[in-house]
Amino acid sequence: MSEDPTLPREDTGFDRVLAFSLPNRHARGRVVRLGPVLETVLSAHAYPPVVKHLLADALVMTSLMGSLLKEEGAQLTIQAQAEGGLVDMMVCDYRDGEVRGYVHFDAEKFANMQDEELQLDLPALFGTGYLAITFDLVATKKRYQGVVPLEGSSLADACEAYFAQSEQVPTLLRISVRSNGERCMAGGLLMQFLPDGEEGQARLHAQEDHPDWEHVSVMAGSVQRDELLDPVLTLEELLWRLFHEEDEVRVEPLVLLQRGCRCTVEHYKTILSRFPDDQLADMREEDGTIPVDCAFCSKVLNIPV
Predict the structure, then answer these.
(1) Which letter does DSSP use for residue 274 in this model?
(2) Which residues contact residue 158 at a Cβ distance below 8 angstroms, ignoring those fewer than 6 apart?
(3) pLDDT at 196
(4) Does residue 291 contact residue 282 with C-beta atoms inside 8 Å?
(5) Which of 2-16, 183-197, 252-266 has the lowest mean pLDDT?
(6) Cα–Cα distance between 183 and 39 in angstroms, integer?
(7) Which residues contact 1 (CB under 8 A, 6 or more apart)?
(8) CA atoms of 150 and 130, how far apart (whole Å)
(9) Which of 79, 181, 291, 304 lies 20 to 30 angstroms, CA to CA, from 9?
């Protein structure tokens, strides 16, 4: 029996990040295609389609950027805060292959809008606000944060601006999302130029107009939306299509992604221990526990305190 070309192959690589580099071009990249993990995160809340698309975008970026971290336990957090739009807060993070995300939106505003008024550009969704990108490193206990305005047509535009302004690293991001009823998948490609040495070394003179970066950005930017989402095209095959003319492409499969939520009794006990006794008394139920609702997964835990 011939293989059904409309179904994903086992080696397609859903929910994993593929790292790659082009040594002769001083460039590195990440490519990802999210499937079941994305659907699990989105299922925690009854998001309108536009918000689902926004969160899927953010989770792809979180996976791509978070996978740049090499240190175990290090975390990337992407947080958007705004006012005057349909969405006032969005939080996503990545740690050791675990991703999670949440969006707080104005349900009443969505209910009063017509379909043709709903847009995905950042001003329409957020009004005015900012996007904060934070890297928390365990070994050095250092935190690095960059903040950029929520401007442009997409979150990818805002993240490219972050890398240009905060890290002086020319970066290209391409993200695509497809939703069909309850099923949703998303894919993304990240490409960066590291002209002053290997990863982890100082990069003092990154140039957007460097011939190597101009070449790589054109090749990576040629990726098609359907290629990022093609369920029968492996990530390795996608990279071959883009860069088969290069002298060398180094590929490294990274850890499998999973939905990670840290809403445990122990975690919330630690947080509640910081509250004074009088406030804890006001929060307690008759049975002596304090109910805590996790925004990321919608689980409600009764914490004995």
Answers:
(1) T
(2) 122, 131, 148, 149, 150, 151, 152
(3) 63
(4) no
(5) 2-16
(6) 7
(7) none
(8) 5
(9) 181
276-301 pLDDT, tens digit per residue, is: 888 888 888 888 788 887 788 877 77
For every residue of 59-118, DSSP letters joined together read HHHHHHHHTT--STT-EEEEEEEEEESSEEEEEEEEETTEEEEEEEE-HHHHHTS-GGG-
Residue 165, classed as helix, strand or coil, is helix
Of 3, 45, 2, 53, the closest CA to residue 229 belongs to 53
Q: Would you state the pLDDT for residue 224?
A: 95
Q: Which of 233, 116, 133, 130 is nearest to 173 (CA)?
A: 133
Task: Please give the angle made by the CA atoms of 161, 187 and 45, to the nearest 5 degrees.
Answer: 90
215: left (phi over 0), alpha (psi -120 to 50) or beta: alpha
Percent of the chain with pLDDT over 90: 50
Question: What six digits make up the tokens of 218?
Answer: 């054109």
pLDDT at 68: 93
Residue pair 302/289 in contact by the 8 Å Cβ criterion: yes
CA dihedral (46, 265, 96, 189) in degrees, to 10, reads: 10
pLDDT of amino acid 269: 79
Give Cβ neighbours of residue 223 (< 8 Å, ≥ 6 apart): 174, 189, 238, 242
Phi and psi of 135, rounded to 5°? -110, 120
Q: How far apart, in whole angstroms, are the C-alpha atoms of residue 75 and residue 260?
A: 12
**Side chain identity at residue 54, one-letter code:** L
